[in-house]
Amino acid sequence: MSILQASPSMRDSRGYIASFAPPTAPPDMEQLPGPTSPSDAEAAANPLVNSLLNPIVRRPALVKIQGPFKDHQLASVARGVHSLQMLGLVSVVVIDRDDIPPFEPRDSMAAEAQRTMILRDVERTVHFLTKAHAAARPILATVARITDSGDVYVEAEGLDHVRRAVQEGEIPVLLPVALDDGCRARRISANAVLAALAEAMANEAPAPPAAPATARPKMDLTPARLLIINREGGIPSYARAGLPHLSINLSSELEFIERTWQPNWAYTHPTALSNLALADTCLTHMPKDASALIVSHRSPTALIANLITNKPAHSASLPHALLTQSEGRLSPDTPTLVRRGLPVRILRSVDEIDKPKLATLLNKSFGRVLDEEAYWARLDADLDFVIVVGDYAGAAVVTTEGKRDGLAICYLDKFAVLPSHQGDGTVDFLWVALRDETYGLGLLDAANPSVGSLSGVGRGKDLVWRSRADNPVNKWYFERSNGFMTSTDGKWKLFWCDAEQRMREIALESGGVVRVVEPTESGRTAAWAPAIESIKSVWAD
């Protein structure tokens, strides 16, 4: 039921299956070995037998369980972690408590008392995991070492403890301790242990293909996810009045989040920034499609949803009112999904555009061939700005239409993301930047950190765009628009997003009442339609 509630799309399901389903049997069944005497070597060499005996490909995840938790809370966390284990994600757990300092005190008695608390939490976690039918084992040995300069690393011998547990499908539960140069075990920050594990596990290479069939293959320990389960929930956002960020693009937002941090959050979310820094460190060692989830213990089903979809609980590009006013939407316990992401730039002249890269992006995204001469001529005349994500992994081209008729329509001419970046958050990051530069402009929460952004200064404009009536993406557009209409010839859907600042002003003046069509909006769609419908195709095919 949790998987169904995650509502995975076809792309989400394919992504999960590609990562966790066993290799399929060879298409030519005649190539399979015939009846022979059974042996371990023959079974290991037969992919069909392997897929039957090992129906799930195990992949590791780094998990910080940041208590202290009451018994019923820890039981809920254990059930969530067990569900991940059943679906192929084996958690490598490091125990943490946010009610004691991250490093042990100099006083030996106080240090011993705190270490005893952490040890008991390890024992409790293993107990509740076992009670939830999850195979788990405590790792009481020190897997990490600490240098005189304070650097923490995990050596091969320590990593063996983790590998053996994960390879056998057991959940290793670790203490946040490390050996110093004097071979003394010291309690250190759980974040330091997790960061060291991320680096060591990512650098651990699997066995070479030429390994003997009888030898057990060396598992690829590269973490697929980072999960931080705490009592605080996600990272608070000043743009959402303290409710959590749904998704964070570290490449363009980290510094901005730190700069806009509110003093009162030091009490409500005391470890949020350190957890965000942990995500930033770990994700540098993880695959580009990996993500970190910062989640409250009250949202255990979010763990399953994230594993299947690798997406935030709700799209960050949905209208804020829809996220906050609808039942079951944004709440203080909504998790935050963190990605390395890509930098975002705003280009305001054709001269700034890398034309070959933009053309390649549009061709690959739309599966068509651009008439470049016609398109660049069009942008020379009508370009407003272009939003570029990364090295042209995605782009939104905005033009000004209807100038001949005395109009100034803010028109989304192209919205494109490379197929290789669809599903990794680029689409949402691109749309959020688009909103901040058009219909969201003039509001404090539009002060995004993108290079070349207007940073919220100005007045919002209605954003208009068209899409073919049979475009499967229209469902996504319906959710993000304030309205739509069908063109006179039935070929197009015309969408628009109302300028948010203007709508808020109307709501204030009218005591919160906003009509479907305000007097200032009368006749605007009739004026838009001819200008938009007359835009000529710039595709060569």
From TrEMBL:
One MF annotation (Gene Ontology) recorded for this entry: L-glutamate N-acetyltransferase activity
Presence of the UniProt keyword Electron transport in the record: no
Lineage, broadest ranks: Eukaryota, Fungi, Dikarya, Basidiomycota, Agaricomycotina
Name of the protein in question: Amino-acid acetyltransferase, mitochondrial
InterPro entries: AceGlu_kinase-like_sf, Acyl_CoA_acyltransferase, GNAT_dom, Vertebrate-like_GNAT_dom
General function of this protein: N-acetylglutamate synthase involved in arginine biosynthesis.
TM ranges: none
Family: Belongs to the acetyltransferase family.
BP GO terms, sorted: L-arginine biosynthetic process; ornithine biosynthetic process
Species this protein is from: Cutaneotrichosporon oleaginosum
